[in-house]
Amino acid sequence: MKIKYPLAKETINDEDVNALCEWLKSYPRLTKGNLTIQVEKDWAEYIGTKYAVFNNSGSSANLLMVATAVQCGLIPNKKIVVPSVGWVTTISPAIQLGLEPIMCGSDKNTFGIDLDQLEKICERERPDAVIFVQVLGVPHYKERLLSLKDKYGFVLLEDACAALGARYADGTMVGTVGDMSSFSFYFGHQLSTIEGGMVNVNNKELYDMLLMLRSHGWAKDLDKETYDGMMLKNGVDDFHSPFTFFIPGYNLRSTDLQAFLGIRQIKKAAWASENRNKNHVLYAEKLRGYVEFQEWGDSYPVSISFGAIADNTDHRREIVNRLVDNGIETRIFSAGNLGRHPFWTNLYDEFEDKQSDKIHSRGFFVPNYPELTEEEIDFICNVIMDKA
Which domain-ending residue is among 208, 239, 266? Predict the structure, then answer.
């Protein structure tokens, strides 16, 4: 069956492509340059943080967050709490950097980390870091998260890769809760730069470290005062300074081509968020009582797909078959329980958690993109409920 209703549609339109082609005809700098600086400024202003660091993917953004926390000495005991529901690259950096990941289960409402479990882990393990996911653009419990952070003193990392535009009831944006937060501009997410990611941060020391880690470990991207201070402290002369490496960094830069697209995409953020939110709420209204889904209270969810949980595995199979037969693209809910995947079980004990396993065995996605109409959502919901 041909797909009539894809899970995602490209957010880069004909106007963007035409503008990009005209820009390319001017033979501009394509690698990281002034447009990268501009898209970082625009994104920081949109989210509401002092700084933003553009990079080549949301996964790289997560790596930069964890590596920065390590390099700045914020995880001395190497213990970091990681979520069971999210994406592999929420967890991978902890493993790659030699940390001790401690998995935490999923909340029954938002599907983010279970904060009761988190508090027990904090009492038992005293982790120096926690990374949590704003699952599918449904804001997680900000006040209690920050209360636990204050009580136990951990650095808080926020994976908001699939939550662009979501906000709390008080109006603050997702991406302002953690000491650092990550976003993804991958195709199918709320906004796209083809590939791309961003880290948002308020702390200047963390910001400087993010910049250096992103680009080989050199200091070229730092402000002049900080740059000159590093050269003086390390006895580096003017001739050597551009190519002096201060830390073992990466090359996770994006390009000004992606930044050009990003500047245009940010201007669409309000429109995209409003429509995705409207669609998300419509799905919930129509499907309530037939399937389970995330609850968000007074918050403002902005999802990349609408996620639902069937009554059991057989029920999910029946729904999936109907969706496929009607040309509606579907897939599992995110990655299910990450503690059931080989990347985890080959290194650690398999992770059992009631809510995470429910998502794993019974969860599924259906389309949500800004152009989706109420009539189309009606049809998709009727297929799910076997009323079409």
Answer: 266
